[in-house]
Amino acid sequence: MKFSCPKCKSKIEIQKTFNKKMHVSCSKCGIQDILEFSKNPDEVFLEFLARFDKGLVKQKELTDELADEGIIRTKKEINEMIGESNPEKFLEEILHSKKDFISDYKILKNSEPKMGCKVEELGLDENISNFLNESKIKQFYKFQEDAIQEIVFGENIVIEAPTASGKTEAFLIPVIQRIKKESNQGKIFAIFVYPTKALARDQFPKIQKFADKIKINVKVFDGDTKIEERREIIDTPPEIIITNFDVLHYHLWHQTKFSNLLNSTEILVVDEAHVYSGIFGSNVHYIIKRLKRICKNKLQFVAASATLEDAKTFCEQLFGEKMQLVKGSGKKGETDFVMVFPTLRTQRNLMVELTKKLTDKNHKTMIFSNSHLNAELLAMQTKKQKINIKVHRAGLMANYRMSVEKQFKEDKLQAISCTPTLELGIDVGNVDCVISSTIPVNRLTQRIGRAARKGQRGYAFLALGNDPISQYYKNHPNDYFEDIEKTYIDPKNPFVEEFQILAIACDKPISKHELKEHEKMIEYHVTEGNLIELNNRIVPNFEKINSILNDYSIRGIGKSIDIFLNEKKVGDRILPIALEELHKDAIYFLAGSRYKVKELNYPKNNYAKIERVQKDYPYYTKSLTEEWPTIETIFEKRNAGGIEIAFCKLHIEKKVYGYVNIELGQEVAQGEKVMLDIPLEYDFITKGIVFHAPRPLEVMEKSEDEEYTEASGYHATEHVVIEGSNMITGGVSQDLGGISLGTSGLIFIYDGAIGGSGASKALYDRFEKALERSMHIVKECPCKNEAGCPRCTFSYRCGNNNEFLHKYSALEILERINNGEKTELIDPMEGDKPLV
If you ran DSSP here, which 8-state letter would residue 772 be given? Predict the structure, then answer.
């Protein structure tokens, strides 16, 4: 609905502020006002006209009033932030925004990298030294010198350094040196593993150029390698093979000719090691163990990674070996960094406007979203601003993604809307600016590392969202730089172990004396007939387990729903998330387009049929769910302050019973709930934590419905603890689910991945800090709504569509916890009996 300015007849904008007020303004003549919140824009506009007629509406900017409300910074505060810096005019306009709160502005300066020895001083093969000199590399960085020496000496190392800092050279040079020295021609000496085919093929030309000069053979072997190339690799094995863990897994258990070549391997190099977090990393841990089993030589391990909180510990867990850490410094140059909190609009609208301002100045821009959906929606809105932008994310065809990379590199695109797929080192050419949604600071640093590689001034924007952790960073920006990501895996995931033991037996028969740590799982498979004892060895029963192995994905666990369009399979989605996204009439995003689910066949045949929706269709859907937990085993207990918390094995029963429509651009539910004719049910085993929250007695005394207030307080507390712990545990909240059991006070937070991913264990280990931060989030949120708002108690993942929440009850619960009130884990069904 359009409203006209009473002064100049231009368009009036009415926006809800983050603290539940209404901001009315005219962009042309500048009159504006702040009014009390009303859901009806007509009422707000009429009040505005009445105040204008009485001369109460400001004829100039409401800077002081907006600043008093915490909506923007004052001019003085912004100028103090700028200090001696000299930002470009467009950036100064952004900093003095009247729609956003500038949480932080600083110039990120990287110190000069520490220099190491000269190339000729390291005793390298003459051909290597000559090539480096031809490439105008006269001296190594100190971390490169250290890495080269350690790898040549045969040590297991982790190279930790930012994007574009020379990590590849740090492991490639010593590997080639070893090959030349040890005369390993004609057999595979080193495997270089990358997390994606795209990154492997992007890095291949750089590696090949170096290797060719030294007369070393390098080949890529992945799902896109043609048959004739495969034959050539098998007939004439290269010294270095470039691949991914999916390929290693498949060829090992199939005992192919390619897998037979791998037994000569002496060095395994894993680039972008931080990617192997969660379920994927748990599977990779076993694939590495399997590779060790088939190799004739003791494997040496080299990992390369962006900044992690504890890269050494994580990689030791991933490889099952002791590792040494070699740390490198960042790139040269300066980047203007701005942390922006959108107070008068959504995060996506902020990101769209930033993209517009930057591309108008011919700054090539990468915009990072944290989900497929957000990347697609951002591109849709940005295209309406006449910006030449395309989407780059997993789930799009490889040739399409490559064309986007090529167009951006050749300056035929102004911007890319991407997901973390482009955090990795794929070369997309020159980048001036990076805009990112909220992520841990070390991953932001990696994204920022994409900008200004040619020495120009770089620009980086962290666009905070409309969520609890973003509001916390608005008020505590310095804490953001302390919240380094915690990467995690769970090698003890029983479902990963159950599958991988079968794969191990397929790789090579299991001897009686080995794998004692998996003895119980081996016995289980023998009893089930999946493995057979034969001549003192354990071998696979292929007839029984072939389908199990073929259906398993190392990047997830569980069965999938196949997706069909016009009788052709166009994708799949893993359970249980598939039930939330592919129920009948759900709107599903795939390869840049929206579709509607016209049929879901579950649980019999596990497929969904989709059809296109018209481009102007205004909605997408969000499912409504119910969950029920049962504790099967408690692994460990401890006290976090006064409350008892347990880390345990959980059985989760999940039901999808309906959905709501969400309007594009509005991000709010429209209309009534839609109930499914037959609810979709799924149950699975996972890991999680449980704690008993104290009762909100003071708030309950003032309430007319004590039971509702108490239960809603626990529900809100569950939300805030998950969302508030997001960056403390390394941005894992999207990997967690939560359940609060009525008025019992029991709150469960669990891994969304079947069998467990390690996310809830990361929260268990840092629970005190999560509880303290959760209290601050609720306490500092200015909203007056009893239920709270998206910036304190709401969760976009809530299966109840954020109903039955009580902000003030949650605040009292969290204050009682942080003041040291004691609770014990008591079974609500058994009175005072301890919980398991």
Answer: H
- Co-location of 651 and 511 in the same domain: no
Q: Alpha-carbon distance 528 to 518, whole Å?
A: 16
Q: Where are the alpha helices (DSSP H) in 541-597?
A: 542-551, 577-581
DSSP summary character for residue 770: H
Within-domain flag for 78 = no
Are 653 and 695 contacting, i.e. CB atoms less than 8 angstroms apart?
no
Using an 8 Å Cβ cutoff, are 609 and 658 in contact? Answer: no
Q: Are residues 435 and 583 in the same domain?
A: no
Q: Is 152 helix (H, G, I), strand (E, B) or coil?
A: helix
- Which residue, 602, 617, 632, sits at the end of a domain? 617
Question: Could you read off the pLDDT of 358-416 as tens digits, one per residue?
Answer: 999 988 899 998 777 788 889 888 988 889 999 887 667 777 888 888 898 888 999 99
pLDDT digits (tens, 9 = 90+) for 565-619: 998 888 777 787 889 889 999 998 775 578 999 999 998 888 999 999 887 788 8
User: Could you tell me if 234 and 323 lie in one domain?
Assistant: yes
Domain endpoint, select from 303, 327, 351: 327
Q: Is the model's pLDDT at 319 over the cut of 90?
A: yes
Distance (Å, whole) CA 59 – CA 287: 68
For residues 629 and 576, state if they share a domain.
no
Give the structural domain span for 546: 494-551
Q: What's the predicted TM-score (pTM) here?
A: 0.77
In terms of DSSP H, where are the helices of 295-327? Answer: 311-319
Average pLDDT (24-53) is 79
Separation between Cα atoms, residue 811 and residue 781, nearest integer Å: 11
Task: Determine the residue type at 764.
Answer: Y
